[in-house]
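Deliverable D2.4 — example input (C-alpha cells):
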C-alpha cells in the first residue's frame, strides 16, 4: 500500500521513514499516515471528475479521521468537508477550513449545533428529517441568514457490506422515506421557507462497498425523484449527493474498484438517466472517507506477552488493541499485518494477535502468518487510517496513541500521544463536585 518499501536492514519503510526508527522516536502504539497516499487519492477523485464531469464536488467525510492537520491537507487538495457534529465543525474551523466548503450532516443535529454552525458561516446543511426541518425554520426566524440544504432520502437500495454500516435500506434510521411520500412533503415544506434554499438530494447507502452497481441504482432512484419533483412541484433540483462508501483493500482477496472506474460508472449513469428523464445534469457530490485515508494508515505496535496452547493456538499480545482499533471487535473486520523489523524473513508459524484489554473479544488478527517472533518485535497493521483514531477510546485507561504524517523521509508529529494526565483531564474528585440542592 502507498509508498511502502523495505530497507537493507529488512525494516518496513513508509513514506521514506524506517518504521522501526519511528517507534524508537515516538513509541508504540503509533499511527503512521502516508501523506502522499492521501494526496494521491484526493487527486484521483478530483481528476476522475474533472475529465468527464466537471460539475462535481468531492467532500472528505471527516468521520473517517479528523484532526487539524488532516483538515489542512484536505483543504490544500481542494476538497470540501462533510462533518457530522458540532465537534467536527469546531475542529474544521480551528484548522482554518473554509466555512463555505463544509456540509453539516447527522440524523439528530441539535439546535445548538445548527445555530453555531450557521453563525460561523457553515450554511450547507444536509437535512435528515422533519424535526430538523422545523428546527432550522425556527432558528432562521431569528437570524438574517439563508441556508442551502440537501434533503437526505432513503433510496431503498441494499448494498452488500456489514449490516452495521448499511444505511440505504428502507428500514434505516436515516433520511426521508420515498415510499410514504415523506420526501416529497419535505420538498414542499422546504420550498415554502424563504430562508431555505433547497439545492438537491443526498443519499448514502453504506460503507466499504465494492459494487458501483449499488451507486448506479441509487443514482437512478434519486433522479427518478428529481423528475417527480420537477413534474409535480415545478422545481428543478441542481445537486445530487451520492454519499461516500467506496471500499478499500483491507486484505489481498478484496478487489475494490479503483476511484476512476467508480466515478466513471456513477457519471455514466447520471448522464444517461438525466437525459432519459429530461433533466439538466445536476452537480454530483461524493463524500469519500475511508477510500481517502484508510489505506494511507498503518498502526505500529510492540509485541509483548505470548501464550502458546499446544495444538490449538498461539496468542501474541500487542501494547494496544480495541481502544485504538475497535473495528475487529465491532465488525469482525480483518486486517493484514507484518513484522516490521523482519520483513524479509519467511513465515514459520501462525499467531493470533491479541490486544491488551480485559476481554476475549479484543483480538486484532486471527492466525497471522509470521516469521519467528519475540517480544520487542514491531507489528505493522495495514489499512488503519479510517475509523480507528476517530473511533478510539480510553477503555482500560489506555492513553490514545500518537500519530505521525510521513513523507519523503520526514515524519511530522500531527497528534501527540495522550498522557495518563490526559486520561483524567475531565475528572473531578469527590470533594470538588458542586452539590446541587433544591
Ligand atoms: N457520507 C455519509 C452520510 C456517511 O454516513 C458516511 C459514513 C460517509 C459519507 C463516508 O463513508 P466512507 O467513504 O468512509 O465509507 N465505522 C464504520 C464505518 C461507518 C461509516 C459511517 N458513515 C467502520 O469502521 O467500518
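Example output (designed residues):
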Amino acid at each position: 500500500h502507498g509508498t511502502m518499501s523495505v530497507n537493507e536492514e529488512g525494516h518496513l519503510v513508509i513514506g521514506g521513514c524506517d518504521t522501526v526508527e519511528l517507534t524508537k522516536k515516538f513509541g508504540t502504539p503509533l499511527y503512521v499516515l502516508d501523506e502522499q497516499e492521501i494526496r494521491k487519492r484526493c487527486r484521483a477523485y478530483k481528476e476522475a471528475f474533472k475529465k468527464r464531469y466537471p460539475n462535481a464536488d468531492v467532500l472528505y467525510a471527516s468521520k473517517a479521521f479528523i484532526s487539524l492537520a488532516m483538515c489542512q491537507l484536505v483543504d490544500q487538495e481542494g476538497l470540501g468537508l462533510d462533518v457530522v457534529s458540532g465537534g467536527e465543525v469546531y475542529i474544521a474551523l480551528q484548522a482554518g477550513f473554509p466555512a463555505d466548503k463544509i456540509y453539516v450532516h447527522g440524523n439528530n443535529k441539535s439546535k445548538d449545533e445548527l445555530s453555531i454552525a450557521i453563525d460561523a458561516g457553515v450554511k450547507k446543511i444536509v437535512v435528515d428529517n422533519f424535526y430538523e426541518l422545523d428546527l432550522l425554520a425556527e432558528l432562521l426566524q431569528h437570524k438574517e441568514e439563508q441556508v442551502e440544504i440537501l434533503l437526505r432520502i432513503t433510496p431503498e437500495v441494499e448494498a452488500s457490506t456489514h449490516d452495521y454500516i448499511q444505511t440505504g435500506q428502507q428500514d434505516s434510521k436515516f433520511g426521508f422515506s420515498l415510499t410514504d411520500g415523506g420526501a416529497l412533503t419535505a420538498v414542499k415544506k422546504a420550498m415554502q421557507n424563504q430562508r431555505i434554499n433547497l439545492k438537491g438530494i443526498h443519499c448514502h447507502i453504506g460503507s466499504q462497498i465494492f459494487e458501483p452497481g449499488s451507486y448506479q441504482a441509487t443514482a437512478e432512484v434519486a433522479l427518478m425523484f428529481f423528475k417527480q419533483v420537477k413534474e409535480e412541484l415545478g422545481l428543478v433540483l441542481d445537486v445530487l449527493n451520492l454519499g461516500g462508501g467506496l471500499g478499500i483493500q483491507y486484505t489481498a482477496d478484496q478487489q475494490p474498484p479503483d476511484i476512476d472506474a467508480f466515478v466513471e460508472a456513477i457519471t455514466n449513469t447520471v448522464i444517461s438517466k438525466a437525459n432519459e428523464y429530461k433533466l439538466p445534469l445536476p452537480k454530483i457530490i461524493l463524500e469519500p472517507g475511508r477510500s481517502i485515508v484508510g489505506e494511507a494508515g498503518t498502526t505500529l505496535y510492540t509485541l509483548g506477552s505470548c501464550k502458546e496452547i499446544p495444538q490449538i493456538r498461539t496468542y501474541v499480545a500487542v501494547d494496544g488493541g480495541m481502544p485504538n482499533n475497535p473495528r475487529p471487535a465491532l465488525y469482525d473486520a480483518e486486517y493484514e499485518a507484518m513484522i516490521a523489523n523482519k520483513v524479509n524473513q519467511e513465515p514459520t508459524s501462525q499467531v493470533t494477535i491479541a490486544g491488551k484489554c480485559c476481554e476475549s473479544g479484543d483480538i486484532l488478527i486471527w492466525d497471522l502468518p509470521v516469521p519467528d517472533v519475540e517480544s520487542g518485535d514491531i507489528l505493522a497493521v495495514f489499512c488503519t487510517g479510517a475509523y480507528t483514531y476517530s473511533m478510539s477510546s480510553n477503555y482500560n485507561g489506555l492513553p490514545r496513541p500518537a500519530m505521525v504524517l510521513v513523507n519523503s523521509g520526514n515524519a511530522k508529529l500531527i497528534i501527540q500521544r495522550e498522557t495518563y494526565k490526559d486520561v483524567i483531564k475531565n475528572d473531578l474528585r469527590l470533594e470538588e463536585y458542586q452539590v446541587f440542592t433544591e
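The first helix runs from residue 19 to 26.
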